[in-house]
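note to self — DONT lose this again. spent like an hour looking for the file last time. sequence + predicted structure for the chain T wanted, 100 res
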Amino acid sequence: MHGLIGKMVAHPGKRDQLAAILLDGVGGMPGCLSYVVAIDPKDDDALWITEVWVDAAAHAASLKLPSVQAAIAKGRPLIAGFGDYVTTTPLGGHGLAPAG
C-alpha cells in the first residue's frame, strides 16, 4: 500500500470551503482505500489530508481523473500553502485490509 499524509493551509477564512471541495472530489477514485480530510484544531486555516492507496501508481493515476482535476482547479485559489508532508507504507488498520 501507499500512504500520504499532508497539511494544507487555506487562506484565512477559506478552510471550510476548501474542505468541502476536497471532500466533494473524492468519489470514484480507483485504488483509493481511504481519503480523510480533517481540520487542525490548533490552526484555524489548516487541514490534514490522509490517503491510503493500493499503490503509488493508483495515486498518480487519480491526479489525471477529470473530477480530481476539477477539484484541484476549484481549490487552488483557496490554498495559501502546504505544511508537513510525508509518504508512508501502511501496514493495515481498521478499515484497511492487511498489505499482501
